[in-house]
Write a structure and sequence with these properties.
Elements (H helix, E strand, L loop, with lengths): L1 H5 L1 H52 L1 H4 L4 H6 L3 H21 L4 H8 L3 H6 L9 H13 L8
Helix pairs in contact: 2-5, 5-6
């Protein structure tokens, strides 16, 4: 007991340091948990957006694989067709921010709509995965033959 009395201050200091390290570890664990929960929520939101686009494609096959995109773009369903492609781009943005390996899938989906994608005004490259996708798509798919007359 005499040893404990002589080293009480040292033991208290060590206990305080140990408590501080445990508290710091707990804070770090909470941060990791919150980051993972946020990542999972963003991934689920992206998947929901993609599922929503698939449902639109099923209910509007004339937009999903248009026979004549130029006629659609000038006809009475032009707004609905543009909204369909906008929803595709929104789904791409959500998914590519969460899982970049989906780029091939969205390239394939955008390949059904080169006339509309190529006619969209440039928004400037903000470096996002979606903007990079559109840029690469335009480099490979957009040419003078796609212009709707």
């Amino acid at each position: 007991m005499n040893w404990l009395t002589r080293h009480a201050q040292t033991l208290n200091a060590v206990a305080a340091l140990l408590t501080a390290f445990i508290a710091l570890g707990a804070l770090l664990a909470v941060k990791i948990q919150l980051d993972e929960a946020d990542r999972l929520q963003r991934l689920q939101s992206a998947r929901d957006a993609y599922r929503g686009h698939l449902a639109l494609a099923i209910s509007s096959p004339e937009f999903a694989q248009p026979e004549d995109a130029c006629a659609l773009m000038k006809g009475p369903k032009a707004g609905a067709y543009e909204a369909f492609v906008d929803h595709l781009l929104y789904s791409a943005e959500q998914m590519l921010d969460s899982e970049p390996h989906w780029e091939g899938t969205f390239n394939g989906l955008l390949a059904e709509h080169p006339e509309l994608v190529c006619s969209m005004p440039e928004t400037g490259d903000d470096g996002s995965a979606m903007q990079q996708l559109i840029s690469r798509f335009r480099q490979t798919h957009c040419n003078a033959d796609l212009a709707c007359r």
